[in-house]
Structure to design on (904 residues):
């Protein structure tokens, strides 16, 4: 038994004055009487000795003292049982980075194990302990605000679903350590549940009042993994897809890649890894090369990390365009250039149209090339010789990375004169000179247009290798719908999307098709450089299960104290009342008028003397 | 100092007389009939003239009507000796409201009346020296002064105190004994016998106090006799009080019976009713004054 206010025992000192007062009251009162003659002989044998009175007085004193003891003990606050210890705070930092998707030998992912261990840690908390759960992704945040509530396994699993984001466990741990004591500055523990990759990023520094426990999951093994690090169209042969695979963890093993479009398998290749643990496979796209659509490459068999075992890309639809050349006498270099790109321009549907021809002359035409003539309205057009103010022998250079200028080098170009072209709204400058814009490209009124301020024949451009590229780029750009990239990489800025970062898809998909420039594409998670599932140097220390098991189990740390003060107070009050009743009886006897010589009642007599005589 | 009698009371007392039942025997000329023929103003009877009678007492009117000589006989007028015996022992208490105060007031009333009638008042404060005599109406103040100066003293048996104050009473007279009769019965009986032997017309003023007659429940007490200093410890409860009251009433009956047997007037005076008007009313009712 303990006492909450032991200093209250000083109240027991009141027993001294009580006993003194009792002894004072217990003595007989002396009363003077006129004569004892009448009183003698009235004394009973025993009653007059006051035996009953003594018993009553002793009983009253005992009750008063007992009441004093009970009330004093009540004031001292007797307590049995144990008090709950001071509440603590536990901050659990759960690594939700991409490597936490690694499957372990039991089939569980690291993130699943982390959530299970977090639940186990929560169960070891005391009823008054506060819990905070941090989500350690590239942008850490508090998944569970500080609470004395206890989220269940499902709730935690829903809050801590896996991601493909880079690890942010170091930053999350620093934030958690800083916030762990809270405003109340309570003792706190930060439990970091991460994998060896995340653990390698942690630095061991924390304030004294915060204990940091790092539980490393899947630390005692090296997983096996090979990643598709690249998938794209072979530039040398657009009808093939190039696949590059690298072994990130473990020894290389026999792996194959399978190219498929929908449910149809297009190609299969066995990988042969080189000394750098890399392998490359060129796989024919077949009809998909021109028909376009989503194709997927998959590594077989799968390994411990499945997210990099597949990659997808969206192939564009390729078709030859019908081109109309509007010119009095078209440049032969231009005509030849158009003939030299059968994959882009359909020669059978390429025509020469005289300037001023009616609009019906352009029916079925995809792109108009105007060489020193006015282009028809409402048609995508490549215009040579546009512009007004002429600049003599300008030096030209390309501006930006417009698709029209892809692979085009204008630096060796010699030109007699060029007209300056003012970009209209929606158009951008692609070719510039010291005097101003010489070439613009853009979309006006829903129709694309490329305007160059010079004619091919007035320059050395047809003699350059860049000329057919320029023409091809321009015709392709003008003749096709805005083309979406074949894929976008999660976590990187998307072209044509004002630099917006492509969000990470959920592990295992769906790899949502983004609408970029009017077309859809697929999101691909690409392993970053030096991507590994386990560090080169093994992490030493206890396992995550051991760390969680070592946390003090405070689940039964409840306040089991029973306070006896009310009962003691009631007992004391009852004893006090009983003692007071006994004292009151004695007091009534003591205050009653004693036998007297009659000398104490004069006042009323004197008052009465003033009354009228008879 | 106790105020015994106020001016209005004295004025009222001037019209009263002491209620004596027998003829006065003071021996000195006074206003009271002595019952003895002699020189006086109170006509007693006619007597046939005998030679040698003083002719001044011949009733000439009767001689004119009857033709025979008769002489008028008068009663001799004497004063009265009034003895005031006031028990001033410690049991009577002291101060206003005490039994002593009530007794002194009663004695003062009787003494003032007696002095107003030309009687001689002899005051004896018991126990004390020989009695002091007061005579003449002008001595009323002295008497009251002497009474006011009375103080309760230690215990002395009342019979011895009376003997000491009144060793011999030569003439018949009126005696007022003021006491509480709380002595041993033998003691107060001897006192009564002594006074009766002195041939005085004795009136006993028995003073009791209400609490003495009816004490309350007092619990655990140590009772001390104010006269002897003796002590007894008592657990006073209701039963004991009942028995005490019975004993007290029995004592009253004994006193009354003994005094009755001696032809002594017994007047019970309760100090609860001892204001001047109440006391005067009691004395008149008892016939001590008239």
């Amino acid at each position: 038994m303990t006492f909450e206010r032991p200093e209250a025992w000083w109240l027991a000192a009141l027993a001294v004055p009580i006993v003194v007062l009792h002894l004072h009251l217990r003595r007989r009162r002396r009363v003077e009487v006129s004569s004892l003659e009448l009183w003698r002989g009235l004394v009973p044998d025993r009653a007059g000795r006051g035996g009953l009175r003594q018993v009553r007085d002793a009983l009253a004193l005992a009750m008063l003292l007992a009441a004093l003891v009970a009330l004093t003990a009540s004031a001292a606050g007797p307590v049995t049982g144990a008090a709950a210890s001071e509440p603590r705070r536990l901050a659990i930092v759960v690594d939700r980075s991409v490597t936490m998707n690694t499957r372990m030998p039991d089939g569980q992912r690291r993130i699943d194990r982390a959530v299970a261990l977090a639940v186990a840690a929560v169960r070891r908390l005391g009823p008054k302990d506060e819990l905070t759960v941090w989500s350690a992704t590239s942008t850490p945040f508090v998944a569970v605000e500080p609470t004395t509530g206890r989220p269940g396994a499902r709730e935690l699993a829903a809050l801590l679903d896996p991601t493909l984001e880079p690890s942010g466990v170091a930053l999350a741990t620093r934030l958690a350590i800083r916030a762990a004591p809270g405003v109340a500055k309570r003792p706190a523990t930060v439990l970091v549940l991460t994998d060896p990759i995340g653990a390698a990023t942690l630095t061991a520094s924390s304030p004294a009042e915060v204990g940091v426990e790092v539980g490393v999951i899947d630390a005692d093994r090296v997983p096996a993994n090979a990643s598709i690090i690249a998938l794209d169209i072979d530039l040398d042969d657009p009808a093939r897809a190039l696949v590059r695979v690298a072994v990130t963890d473990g020894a290389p093993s026999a792996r194959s890649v399978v190219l498929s479009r929908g449910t149809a398998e297009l190609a299969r290749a066995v990988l042969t890894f080189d000394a750098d643990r890399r392998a490359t496979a060129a796989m024919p796209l077949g009809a998909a090369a021109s028909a376009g659509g989503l194709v997927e490459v998959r590594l077989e068999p799968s390994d411990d990390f499945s997210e990099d075992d597949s990659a997808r890309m969206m192939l564009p639809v390729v078709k030859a365009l019908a081109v109309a050349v509007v010119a009095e006498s078209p440049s032969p270099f231009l005509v030849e250039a158009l003939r030299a790109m059968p994959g882009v321009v359909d020669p059978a549907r390429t025509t020469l149209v005289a300037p001023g021809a009616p609009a019906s002359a352009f029916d079925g035409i995809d792109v108009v090339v105007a060489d020193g003539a006015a282009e028809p309205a409402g048609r995508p057009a490549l215009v040579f010789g546009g512009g007004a103010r002429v600049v003599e022998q300008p030096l030209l250079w390309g501006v930006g990375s417009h698709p029209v200028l892809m692979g085009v080098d204008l630096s060796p170009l010699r030109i007699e004169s060029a007209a300056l072209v003012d970009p209209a709204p929606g158009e951008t400058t692609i070719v510039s000179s010291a005097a101003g814009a010489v070439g613009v490209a853009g979309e006006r009124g829903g129709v694309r247009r490329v305007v160059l301020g010079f004619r091919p024949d007035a320059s050395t451009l047809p003699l350059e290798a860049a000329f057919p590229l320029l023409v091809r780029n321009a015709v392709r750009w003008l003749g096709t719908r805005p083309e979406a990239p074949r894929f976008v990489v999660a976590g990187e800025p998307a072209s044509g999307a004002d630099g917006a970062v492509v969000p990470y898809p959920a592990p295992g998909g769906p790899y949502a098709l983004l609408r970029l420039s009017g077309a859809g594409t697929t999101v691909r998670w690409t392993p970053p450089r030096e991507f590994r599932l386990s560090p080169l140097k093994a992490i030493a220390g206890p396992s995550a299960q051991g760390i969680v098991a070592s946390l003090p189990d405070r689940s039964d740390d409840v306040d089991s104290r029973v306070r006896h003060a009310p009962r003691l107070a009631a007992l004391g009050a009852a004893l006090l009342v009983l003692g007071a009743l006994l004292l009151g009886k004695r007091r009534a006897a003591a205050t009653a008028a004693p036998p007297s010589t009659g000398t104490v009642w004069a006042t009323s007599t004197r008052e009465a003397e003033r009354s009228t005589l008879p | 100092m106790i105020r015994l009698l106020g001016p209005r009371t004295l004025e009222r007392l001037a019209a009263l007389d002491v209620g004596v039942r027998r003829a006065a025997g003071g021996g000195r000329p006074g206003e009271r009939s002595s019952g003895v023929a002699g020189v006086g103003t109170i006509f007693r009877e006619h007597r046939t003239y005998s030679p040698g009678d003083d002719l001044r007492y011949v009733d000439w009117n009767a001689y004119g009507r009857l033709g025979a000589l008769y002489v008028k006989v008068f009663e001799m007028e004497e004063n009265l000796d009034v003895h005031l015996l006031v028990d001033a022992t410690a049991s009577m208490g002291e101060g206003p409201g005490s039994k002593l105060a009530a007794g002194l007031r009663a004695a003062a009333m009787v003494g003032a009346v007696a002095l107003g009638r030309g009687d001689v008042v002899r005051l004896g404060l018991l126990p004390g020296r020989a009695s002091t005599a007061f005579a003449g109406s002008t001595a009323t103040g002295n008497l009251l002064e002497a009474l006011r100066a009375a103080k309760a003293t230690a215990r002395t048996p009342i019979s011895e105190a009376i003997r000491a104050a009144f060793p011999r009473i030569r003439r018949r007279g009126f005696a007022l004994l003021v006491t509480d009769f709380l002595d041993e019965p033998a003691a107060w009986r001897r006192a009564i016998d002594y006074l009766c032997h002195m041939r005085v017309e004795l009136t006993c003023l028995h003073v009791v106090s209400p609490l003495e007659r009816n004490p309350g429940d007092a619990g655990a007490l140590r009772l001390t006799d104010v006269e002897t200093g003796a002590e007894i410890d008592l657990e006073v409860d209701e039963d004991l009080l009942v028995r005490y009251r019975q004993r007290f009433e029995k004592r009253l009956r004994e006193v009354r019976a003994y005094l009755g047997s001696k032809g002594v007037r017994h007047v019970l005076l309760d100090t609860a009713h001892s204001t001047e008007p109440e006391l005067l009313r009691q004395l008149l009712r008892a016939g001590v004054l008239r």
